[in-house]
Amino acid sequence: MAWIEVQVPDIGDFMDVAVIELLVKVGDRVAAEQSLLTVESDKASMEIPCSHAGVVKEILVALGDKINQGTPVLRLEAEASAAASTPVGGAAAPVSAPAPAASSAPSAPAAGPVALSIVVPDIGDFDEVAVIEVMVKPGDQIKSEQSLITVESDKASMEIPSSHAGVVREVLVKLGDKVRQGSPVVILEMLAGVAGVALAAPAAALARPAEAPTVVSTLAVAAQPERVVPTAALPPHEPGAPKAALPHASPSIRRLARELGVPLNEVAGSGPKGRITQDDVQGFVQRVMTGALQTALQQAAAPKAVAAAVATGAEAFPGSIANMLPWPKVDFAKFGPVERKDLSRIQRISGANLHRNWVLIPHVTNHDDADITDLEAFRVSTNKDNEKSGIKVTMLAFMIKAAVAALKKFPQFNASLESTSSGEQLVLKSYFHIGFAADTPNGLVVPVIKDADRKGIFQISAEMGELAKKARDGKLGPADMSGGCFSISSLGSIGGRYFTPIINAPEVAIMGVCKSSIEPRWDGKQFAPRLILPLSLSWDHRVIDGAAAARFNVYFASLLADFRRIVL
Ligand code: CAO
Q1: pLDDT per position as a tens digit, 182-204
Q2: Under a CB-based contact definition with an 8 Å cutoff, are residues 21 and 9 in contact?
């Protein structure tokens, strides 16, 4: 029997990635390509597959270890046929039994240009999704993680990024095509070796025909659902038949579970090969909430908080989700005639986003007022002077410029929180893309004015008009709605005083504006009639504190009160 030292294969740009999960144990019989461990960087998590079939004799890494290409992972007593074959996934070095010498045989690199077929990665529960945007064309030079296409299901739209940098040789999909996990998206020409690609490539795909460049199959990095699950992660290598009773779930599911505090090893996977799906995680939360798991949790080793809630009841732990009542089920027809209507596609997508944002972000809203008497007079006279231009200057355009100035003065408002392997980080942006909520017959959308800092009031007004029209006509594309730093939701043309806008994650604040009205204001000598605009700023208390929010509002209001301050 030959002993094999299995090493980490070429994992691209990933350096010093932490081992977050061991998927096999000593004595396990593993198949070639079966996942051995999961590693996670700040960008992605991925599973490291085994290069050979055999029996695990020794595991050489522990949870938390940092690994790189070539790090020995385990020693394997290889099955006779496998020991002689070419490595498939991880690199491997033959060693002598029973005390193998350390070896650093590299994974076989490939020379010359390589054509790579980028395929749709694990996109969670989405079975078949339609291509609604193709973002690259043959000849385009693309970066790793650059978006290739946008796909859309009835629940969400998401961008499919490329796992590698290279030049697009061929685009294999067109608008309207239906794709699923594994569907080829583009053929990419790259000069780098293919060893890293082999992470997800079947052995046969590595054969290189003499005249044609090698075509190997790889998965794109995990899809980035547009404002649904903010994640960028390599999908796991599909395991063979995992021996260990450890949970299998994609990176986005792991992240969801972490965010919801769900212990994945207590969740039964209903996906292929026991893989845990989003429904499984949500179902687990639901069962805990309705108390259905109470007995099971008491009998098993339940998470401490839930077990305590179960044991002591609501008095000791009144906020526990274990004590939450189930959603009321009412037969409405018993009380009068009813009509049932499906939610529109936009309502379903925006509803899921709003729900997540409301539940996961600790919102606080500060209210304030801006005296816009002079600005409104200026706006009206500007529109009169420019009647012929066809561009109507709106109050919202001034607010977008004021928001840019306030974001520059208070940069923590122009930021996003991101989870990394070393903890949470604040991403501070040096660009100023401002979203505005637009009401459409099908629901709420948030188009984005890009680079608002570099545009004047006329240009912003014109762009807003175009985007609002596109929104009403249902023609906004994902590119029109992505990249926002801060949003403004104006109900000014409708009415109301103040409200609590929901933050548009991953942004950290949103300005809500209601209808301005003439109010008496003390000018030092007397009450004078002034046009007052009510402001409602919601902010994420993990990133921003109350004093900063109050200062932001005061500054924003001061700019609207005297717009000359914007150039100071
Ligand atoms: N106070 C008083 N009047 C206001 C005002 C305010 N704050 N803001 C706008 N108005 C007036 C304008 O002066 C204009 O009046 P005139 O026609 O007499 O000139 C009228 O309302 C229409 O305004 P507008 O065309 O300039 O539109 P807008 O810039 O205010 O808004 C848009 C554009 C796309 C934001 C808007 O159509 C919209 O969809 N608003 C709803 C947004 C929403 O639903 N937010 C809630 C999100 S949370 O569910």
Answers
A1: 888 988 887 543 333 322 333 22
A2: no
